[in-house]
């Protein structure tokens, strides 16, 4: 990224997105090669909005979100390009000291594995209080009372007693809730949550979804990584679909669910139905390095899908906010070829049940 990127600032306006990401690229280096885990990703998150990033494992969801505040391990990762604007200020290229002032305080992360996120030698209360004091929120008795309140908020029973217990004394679902409590300790403007409902049973999942929904009522924005369409249907305002390190479709949740336009998005819905149009994973080779990354698996692939960059985004006539990266939706393409072949689509309410 540009070393002087942080010198550009703009005044915060209520109609600007809280977070704006433009052309983000992050490479992962191995002993044999380097490959683009995130390749030209662009999206935005408004204040109080929930944006869900969906896609299969390895699509670049986590690396994208960890690149925002530089917590992706460098090396092996290397952020090479892109503009990241948060609350009107460019934070790409910011110093580690500047990023530390944002992490946890204004942008908080909840990681997929709470066991790794929690320190086993400190009580959960100590870890919540530390998250408050390190950002100058409060200390002493006031911090402890706030920690108990947060544990109650995330659904930990007998919070007054359990605040002095250690992570190993909590179940996996409760540890995930403790991790969320730590993330909320500094009242962040943006909560970045990586699969927060994956390792919990359906009852705990429902409570976590309700908690996250309540946060947006308080104007907290959420960037949620998930592969669970039920969670997307329950929480999302907007959906970003990733495949092979790129975004292939984005739009309002109702529109994407009712009219999945990209062949890969349709494949995700097929998977939800227990169907599949995709080739067996073991038969696939490496992803194409140019053109449409999905073309090796796409039933509608044609020569126009090859070469050059990922296809441009084209807006669907039915919704100006719904766009898809696919040559079939270009002025020279035939979108009905893809849309007419779509299997049964769903309303948000049908999927969330």
TrEMBL record:
UniProt main location, coarse: membrane
GO process annotations (BP): peptide transport
Database matches in PROSITE patterns: ABC_TRANSPORTER_1, ABC_TRANSPORTER_2
Bias (Polar residues): 344-353
EC number(s) per entry: 7.2.2.11
Topological relation to the membrane, as annotated: Peripheral membrane protein
Ranges where the ABC transporter domain occurs: 19-269
Xref: Gene3D superfamilies: P-loop containing nucleotide triphosphate hydrolases
Coiled coil start-end: none
Alphabetized InterPro entries for the sequence: AAA+_ATPase, ABC_Ni/Peptide_Import, ABC_transporter-like_ATP-bd, ABC_transporter-like_CS, Oligopep_ABC_C, P-loop_NTPase
Gene Ontology MF terms in the entry: ABC-type nickel transporter activity; ATP binding; ATP hydrolysis activity
Keywords: ATP-binding, Cell membrane, Ion transport, Membrane, Nucleotide-binding, Translocase, Transport
Gene Ontology CC terms, in alphabetical order: plasma membrane
Catalytic activity as recorded in UniProt: Ni(2+)(out) + ATP + H2O = Ni(2+)(in) + ADP + phosphate + H(+)
Compartments in which it is found: Cell membrane
Pfam family, one: oligo_HPY
Residue ranges, annotated region (Disordered): 331-353
Quaternary structure note: The complex is composed of two ATP-binding proteins (NikD and NikE), two transmembrane proteins (NikB and NikC) and a solute-binding protein (NikA).
The protein, known as: Nickel import system ATP-binding protein NikD
């Amino acid at each position: 990224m540009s070393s002087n990127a942080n010198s550009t600032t703009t005044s915060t306006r209520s109609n600007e997105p809280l977070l704006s990401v433009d052309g983000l690229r992050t490479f992962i280096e191995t002993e044999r090669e380097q490959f683009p885990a995130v390749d030209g990703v662009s999206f935005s998150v408004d204040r109080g909005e929930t944006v869900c990033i969906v896609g299969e494992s390895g699509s670049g969801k986590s690396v994208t979100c960890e690149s925002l505040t530089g917590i992706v391990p460098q090396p092996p990762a290397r952020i090479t390009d892109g503009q990241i604007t948060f609350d009107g200020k460019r934070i790409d290229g910011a110093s580690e000291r500047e990023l530390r002032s944002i992490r946890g305080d204004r942008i908080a992360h909840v990681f997929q594995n709470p066991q790794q996120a929690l320190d086993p030698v400190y009580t959960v209360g100590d870890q919540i209080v530390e998250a408050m004091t390190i950002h100058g929120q409060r200390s002493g008795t006031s911090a402890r009372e706030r920690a108990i309140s947060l544990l109650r908020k995330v659904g930990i029973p007998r919070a007054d007693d359990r605040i002095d217990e250690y992570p190993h004394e909590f179940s996996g679902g409760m540890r995930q809730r403790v991790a969320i409590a730590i993330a909320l300790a500094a009242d962040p403007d943006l909560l970045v949550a990586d699969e927060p409902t994956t390792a919990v049973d359906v009852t705990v999942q429902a409570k976590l979804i309700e908690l996250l929904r309540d946060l947006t009522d308080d104007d907290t924005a959420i960037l949620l990584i998930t592969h669970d369409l039920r969670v997307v249907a329950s929480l999302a305002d907007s959906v970003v679909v990733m495949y092979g390190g790129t975004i292939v479709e984005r739009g309002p949740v109702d529109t994407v669910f009712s009219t999945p336009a990209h062949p890969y998005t349709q494949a995700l819905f097929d998977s939800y139905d227990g169907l599949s149009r995709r080739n067996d994973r073991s038969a696939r080779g490496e992803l194409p390095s140019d053109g449409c990354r999905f073309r090796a698996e796409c039933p509608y692939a044609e020569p126009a899908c090859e070469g050059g960059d990922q296809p441009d985004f084209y807006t669907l006539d039915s919704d100006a906010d719904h766009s898809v990266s696919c040559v079939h939706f270009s002025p020279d393409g035939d979108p009905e070829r893809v849309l007419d072949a779509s299997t049964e689509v769903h309303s948000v309410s049908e999927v969330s049940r």
